[in-house]
Amino acid sequence: MSRLRKVSYVPSTCNLAIRRICLLAVLGSLAGCEMHSSGTPANVTHSQDSAPYAAPDELRLADQIEAVRDGRSNAIVATNAITDNQLGQLADLPGLQKLQLDNARVSDIGLQSLVGLPQLEQIVLRRAPVGDEGLRHICSLTTVKILNLPQARFTDRGLSELARLPDLELLRFSSPNVTDDGMQQLATLKRLRFLHLISVPISDAGLARLESLEHLESLYLDDIGVSDDAIESLWKAIPGLHLHFNQQHHDRDPHRHPH
Predict the structure, then answer these.
(1) 77-102 per-residue burial string, b: 16 or more CB within 10 A, e: under 16
(2) Which candidate, 214, 46, 180, 188, places its Cα nearest to that of 197?
(3) What is residue 37's DSSP assignment?
(4) Confidence of residue 169 (pLDDT cuts 50, 70, 90)
(5) What is the dihedral angle through the alpha carbons of 124, 182, 178, 193, rounded to the nearest 10 degrees?
(6) 3 state SS of 204
């Protein structure tokens, strides 16, 4: 059985203020930190008007697929292991907008099944060792706005594919194979507003390359070896940046609040 979690879908039809709150809530759920804005609860969720999504406690993957196929849902959310063969069953779901697999036992080859899904905006693949080829398949989906790959293995070369996602607003990933040079690839994402780096082996030089992200609102850094001086420099470049460091608000975070 696939246990279904509450869907935090962020519709493109939201106005800017509401969309910002939605994205903060999604980032909080992805990172394990509840986030609040203007007194709005961090668990605020929205469903697209054209495809409302009311989730029961449990729903088999086959039933979720059928619900997307007939327009009753726009999301697939599974906590049990999903393999390449099962991922291939999603290839003919043009209405799929959110894909969250919490135990994604999928390969780069298997991710090719997602190519061609015209409305996919949110992708969460936990436990998936996504490499350069897999990221290339994902980045062929130019509608993606939220991408969460917390156990990836891609390199700087793979990160260059992100330039194909013009609307990417939230990015969360870990990879031991990304370097300071890869941060230059992130600097090209001019619409990126929320970024979470986990155990990425960058230095102060790499962090400095993010200073051109003038629209960045929130930065989470976990197990990242950068100095206080580098963080100060980033704050000077992006005043008001919300900064989480090793699961805690930075002491000088202007948006600091009790957890």
Answers:
(1) bbeeebebebbeebeebebbbbbbbb
(2) 180
(3) B
(4) very high
(5) -30
(6) helix
Phi, psi of 200 (to 5 degrees): -95, 120
Please report, for the chain, the start and end positions of each structural domain, with discontinuous segments joined by +: 16-249
CB atoms within 10 A of CB 152: 26
Q: What is the pTM of this model?
A: 0.80
Amino acid 155 reads T
223, 199 Cβ separation under 8 angstroms: yes
Q: What is the pLDDT of residues 178-230, one digit of tens each?
A: 999 999 999 999 999 999 999 999 999 999 999 999 899 999 999 999 999 99
Long-range CB contact pairs, 177-184, < 8 A, 24+: 177/153, 178/154, 178/202, 179/206, 180/205, 180/206, 180/209, 181/156, 181/206, 182/155, 182/156, 182/206, 183/207, 183/209, 183/210, 184/209
Residue 82: CB partners within 8 Å, gap ≥ 6? Answer: 61, 101, 103, 104, 105, 106
Res 33 pLDDT > 70:
no
Residue 58 phi, psi (nearest 5):
-140, 145
* CA dist., res. 194 & res. 190, Å (int): 11
Q: Which two tokens stand for residue 76?
A: 């697939």
Give SS3 for 197. Answer: strand
Q: Is the dihedral of CA 217, 222, 247, 42 positive or negative?
A: positive
- How many other C-beta atoms can be found within 10 angstroms of the C-beta atom of residue 204? 16
Q: Can you tell me whether residue 235 is helix, strand or coil?
A: helix
Give the class (CATH, top level) of 16-249: alpha beta
Q: How far apart are CA 191 and CA 211, in angstroms?
A: 14
